[in-house]
Structure formats: C-alpha cells, structure tokens
Amino acid sequence: MNTAATTLNASLVQFDARALAPVLNLERMRGMVETEARAGAQLIVFPELSNTGYVEPLAPGAAFSEDVGGAAGAASYAQRLYEASEPEGGPFTQMLCGLAREHSVHIVAGLALRHPVLPGALHNASVLVGPQGVLGIYHKIHRWHLEKLYFMAGESIAVQRTPFGRIGMQVCYDIRFPELTRALMLQGADIITNVWASFRDEDQPLADEHIFTHRAYTRATENGVFFLSCNRAGRQGHCRFMGRSLIVAPDGKVLAASHSEDEGVVQAELDLSAVTRYRSFVGLLTDRRPDVYARAATTPATPIQP
Q: How far is Cα 113 from Cα 300, in angstroms, rounded to an integer?
C-alpha cells in the first residue's frame, strides 16, 4: 500500500438511474460528484449501469416495463440499450475524467460499455478514473439472469494503483463467487468496490434486511480488505432497487451504511493502515493452503458406498 496516504474519505452515491436516459443520468452524476468533492470525498462510487438503468425485462418471464415502452418497446429494446450505452471515450468517460481532474478525486462508476471493436456488443463494466484519466476498466465476469442476453462476459481480473492504495472492482453478482475477491486480494487489492443494481418485486418485502451486510462483511474479513458496496435506489417497472449501500473495514466493522431504498450518500473515513494491521494479526496470507485446495478441486470425489 502507498504509505503517502493514511486515510481515505469515500462516498457511495445510492441514486436512481433512469432507464435509457444517459443524458439525464450524466447530469445528475455530475452534480453529485461536485457535491461530494466539495464535502471532502476522495473516492466517489456510483452503482451498476448508472448510464442506462438496469436491463429489461427485469426478471425471466416478466414483461417489459413502461419505463422502456412496455410491449411496444420490446422489439427495439436491445438496439436502444446499445444506443444509450457508452462508446469508447464517450461523454460519460470524458465527464468523469474531467471532474476527477478538476476536483482531484477518484471515481468508480458502473456503466454499460460498447465493445471497442465489435458493433452491437456490450459489457457490463465498472470504470475507475482519476485526475490522470482512466485507470482501469473491469468487465463483469458473472452475468445475472437476463444480462446474458445483452452483455459479453468479462475475461480478466486486475487491480489498479491509486495514491491511497490498490483498488479492485467487481459488479453485483460477482460477490457470490469468493474466488474473485480472493484473486483481487492476491493481486494486491486493499480496497474492493462492488457496484449493484439489486432489486426486489415491489409487492414482496425484503426477506433479509441485512443481506448486503452479510455479503460485504464476509468478503471483507475473508480477505482483509475494505469492501465498498454501492447499490442503486429507486424504481424501475414493478421493482424497487434495494439500496442499503455500506462500507466495511477489513475486520468486519461497518463504518457507514444506508438502511434505506431511497436515494442518499454513504460516507466514511477509511484508516488505510487497518489492512496491514488486520492481515498481520489474522494470518490470512501465511495460513492459506492453496496446494490442498487445488488437489480437492481437481480430484474426483470418491463415491460413498452404501
């Protein structure tokens, strides 16, 4: 970890991204970055697919919502999603880089990105920018349900160096695969951002109010990292996005959290020395046995005899 910085002020912006409305979403994010930067934020995180809203239909078997034109808009939805997505070096990227440079901040944003070579192809991505420009782009590896209709799967894992430590990115459903967070930690990540667009049917109550806390706490303590979980707020069609963004320290302490599905900002100061302190005490790196795990993962199980 870069010892020049000892603390980091992080802001998770839990906002309602409007479906297929990139210009509106762009302007809203601009105002939010400026507000958080004036308040002292050094790292500002936005949810999954902040430029386009979440993909439709929202669940297998569901109808297209009126937000995207309902049944009349279903035939052209894929084309409109592509048109609303970010081209290489497009307006979202330019705006985020300009704001990062102007305010000396770093920004992570979930965006739908067009493939730089293949027309019609998209990635569900998380982008990290800083004052010097784009630092890293992560393409979501694990696509949830109908995301597979629109997005190509990512193929690589990378960690980016910043003045306050190394950042690894993941997107939503990725959190359910612990191998990804472990790989990011082994590549040097001190901080991991997960951007979400996680929702529930508005007629169904949330089964577990603490589901996002459970997941972030587990990944943080398994790896001794700061885990920044930024979910979307608001409605789209028949669904409500569940919010409840939070920031968890390497030892599992919740530094700040939203308990709401409404728009808002989660802010916390991170003591960056906590990564070294936790890992050296717990022994996560010295006690690992990847040789044993590898044998178990590649050796066929012996059938249990009756």
A: 40
CATH top class, domain 7-288: alpha beta
| CB half-sphere exposure, 294, CA atoms < 13 A | 4
72 C-beta neighbours (distance < 10 Å), count:
10
Residue 199: strand pairing partners: 241
The per-residue pLDDT for range 270-294, each reduced to its tens digit, is: 999 999 999 999 999 999 999 999 9
Mean pLDDT confidence for 56-80: 95
Question: What is the Cα–Cα distance from 241 to 233, expressed in whole angstroms?
Answer: 5
CA 293 to chain centre: 28
pLDDT confidence bin for 4, thresholds 50/70/90: low
Question: Which residue ranges make up each domain of the chain?
Answer: 7-288
Inter-residue contact 9 to 269 (CB < 8 Å): yes
| In the predicted structure, residue 2 carries a pLDDT above the cut 80 | no
Residues 216/217/221/225 CA torsion (nearest 10 deg): 40
User: Which residue, among 2, 18, 82, 90, has the nearest Cα to 237 in the 3D structure?
Assistant: 18
